[in-house]
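[Meeting: bench + compute handoff]

Bench side (C.D.) handed over the final construct sequence. Compute side (W.E.) agreed to return the predicted structure before the next meeting so the bench team could plan truncations. Sequence as handed over:
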Amino acid sequence: MKAATQRVAVGAAVTALIAGLAGCSGSDESAHHGAPAAKKAAPAPGNAVRLIGDGSTAFTGTQSGLLEPERMKPGEKPPQFVVFSWDGAGEDSQKLFSHFRRVAKKYDATMTYFLSGVYLLPEEKSTMYDPPQHAAGRSDIGFNDIKGIKDTVRELRGAWQEGNEVGTHFNGHFCGKDGGVGNWSVAEWKSELSQAKSFVKNWKTNAGLKNEPPLPFDYDKELIGARTPCLEGRKNFVRAASQLGMRYDTSGINDQIWPKKELGLWDLSLQMVPVPGRAFETLAMDYNFMVNQSGTTSKGDPSMHAYWGKQMRDGLVKAFDRAYEGNRAPLIIGNHFESWNGGTYMRAVEDTIATVCVKKNVRCVSFRQLADWLDVQDPEVLQKMRTLQVGQKPKNGWAAFLATQPSAQASPVVKVKQAGQH
């Protein structure tokens, strides 16, 4: 799988350079971090296990480790949300999935892992994948072997049990003009999504691993959001996702402002952040920092690796600071489990997590948890917060800015259904 993901990096680099914006898309110690008042859901009962289908997935009760969404009180300052997310999440020889699970636990954070469905499909079964506008068995990121599937499922299982979210990065990762996702119809997106779900729901049969433990969630209910490959094809994907009842998309490009809904989905797009020392901003994603630093190669000048990593880390922290001290808009960050330019971006992300997730009233959460929180807020309050520009603090403070919430007083708090609930 490592070689396969490297092919994605090389193939997408030219596209990213032309576009200028869109990227290709431990310790178990526990300390108290983030928002002290946030409540976490109780663990699921140990005997609440019901296998689904061939036993690849299972209903195991309500997911534990989630913050309980609560509506803000009049005049209350919003919490600072930060979402760390991973495209094409899988465990390979680099062991970055397992590493960042440990990092997340250390800093009391949860994240979103966007799984590529073909990472649960063995090479010898490749023709089971019938991608839109391509021959059956074609994938620009390859497929997986049995060890890779077992390792990836192990990490997905543990990640969900720790409160993390499993989304989708779809399957073959086709970018560009020749059958790329940017040219897919609504019906083709539905087919791609259906296949991505099928590979997760039938990985035991497909890989011949029937004695392995199941994934502890019902993927039909777990899967509520996605990021498209190379951030392409968003328009028709959002249409398809809206018709299928999904809850968010994170395939667009936005500034650090409060999100709104589009066709019923929360638009939780990646955001533009500073590039210290440069006169422009770039997307909050490791790939985009790399393209702006070493161009089409992921093996740039070793003497620059430390500088490039610090530049990314400082850019992400600057973006955090201007939200934290300003409009409190959620900060959306995307990455890949890759060792580009000597692994400097992975170190930058880890340093960013260690820096921001420990601050007061900061919640480092998954997209699911952010969407849950947004859903229980007063729409009028969210609309008012959307009037604040990047880094803009309310002129007379938050207490005055959000002092009056008419509909909040008339509407009860809505309890959001969590993953696994029926």
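W.E. noted at the follow-up: The chain has one domain: 2-410. C.D. will use this when planning the next construct.
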